[in-house]
Specification:
Blueprint: H1 2-28, H2 34-37, H3 44-54, H4 60-72, H5 86-121, H6 126-140, H7 143-157, H8 169-199, H9 202-209, H10 214-252, H11 257-267, H12 270-298, H13 300-304
Helix pairs in contact: 1-12, 5-6, 5-8, 5-10, 5-12, 6-8, 7-8, 7-10, 8-10, 9-10, 10-11, 10-12, 11-12
């Protein structure tokens, strides 16, 4: 297990270096940030001083190696817009994103397991058809369209919910509802398919022959053996939520790392862009390792292999 974790950490580090390399140079292809941070009538001397201060007067490859040297010391630079350490800004925004993604995933998994298990118990029934249609609609609907439509309906027309920002319970409803549509829709289909296979297996028939209650058959015997497929897809969706939150946070003005990243890209605040990508990528790599460890806990055959 230690050797496996070491290999995964090495692969993640190599991927992270490649990602940082791509982000560093692609960000600089967006243009010179001097035009955004200085007035139009700024003198040539002022522009040269700004470029020299932030290293933009040096070749891009030299800037990259200088950046790597700073990263090795734990320094990801300062935000040109807010004049604060880029890592500090990212770490301030990240808990908000993690709370949103975590709560969304918990609700999506809980509802999907309930709906998928009940649908699989009576395949072809009314609940199965309604659940399948709802899950397909949720998995197919674009996040940005649902978010904008929700704002127009529930915030602008009905005035039931706030349009944006972070506050009490009402501020969480629309972002979570929009963000959980896709994972809920996909997980319902996965749970239904896995449960159909489990409910038709020999051990379930044996449990029923022994007089085990239907509730225990569905939610203990069958669901336990269907968990590996559910964890596989749920893990991928959890990783996707961290990235997918960018759209939802931008539309709803949610003060998370997604909105911070988008604002930094628009403002060409390169240090914040780089810090956001590095922290997000590291979180995703760590989450993938945790998911692999869950596989080992759920299926001893994976541990043996």
């Amino acid at each position: 297990m230690t050797a496996y974790l070491g290999r995964r950490a090495l692969h993640s580090a190599i991927a992270l270096i490649g990602l940082v390399l791509a982000v560093f140079f692609l960000a600089r292809l967006t243009g010179d940030p001097t035009n955004l941070f200085l007035p139009i009538d700024a003198s040539l001397e002022t522009r040269k001083e700004f470029a020299h201060k932030h290293g933009f007067d040096r070749p891009a490859i030299e800037q990259f190696f200088s950046f790597l040297e700073d990263v090795s010391r734990g320094d990801l630079g300062y935000s040109m817009r807010k004049q604060r350490p880029a890592m500090e800004l990212v770490l301030e925004a990240y808990p908000t994103t993690l709370k949103l993604a975590g709560l969304t995933m918990v609700l999506a998994i809980g509802l999907a397991v309930l709906v998928g298990a009940i649908a699989a118990y009576r395949p072809g029934g009314v609940f199965d058809r309604i659940g399948s249609m709802a899950s397909l609609a949720g998995a197919s609907a674009p996040d940005f369209w649902v978010a904008i439509t929700g704002i127009l309906l529930f915030a602008v027309s009905l005035r039931w919910l706030p349009t944006s920002g972070l506050g009490g319970f009402p501020y969480w409803i629309m972002p979570i509802a929009v963000l959980m549509l896709r994972p809920f829709g996909l997980l319902v289909q996965v749970v239904r398919g896995a449960m159909l296979g489990a409910l038709s297996s020999a051990y379930v028939k044996t449990a029923r022959a022994k007089g085990v209650s239907e509730r225990s058959v569905i939610f203990v015997h069958a669901l336990r053996n269907a968990c590996l497929s559910i964890v596989t897809v749920a893990g991928d969706l959890a990783v996707g939520l961290i990235n997918g939150a960018v759209i939802v946070e931008t539309v709803f003005g949610w003060p998370g790392v997604g909105k911070l990243m988008v604002d930094a890209v628009i403002q060409r605040d390169f240090p914040v862009v780089q810090a956001s990508i590095m922290v997000t990528a590291t979180a995703i790599f760590m989450l993938n390792i945790v998911i692999d460890l869950l596989y080992v806990a759920l299926d001893p055959r994976i541990r043996h292999q």
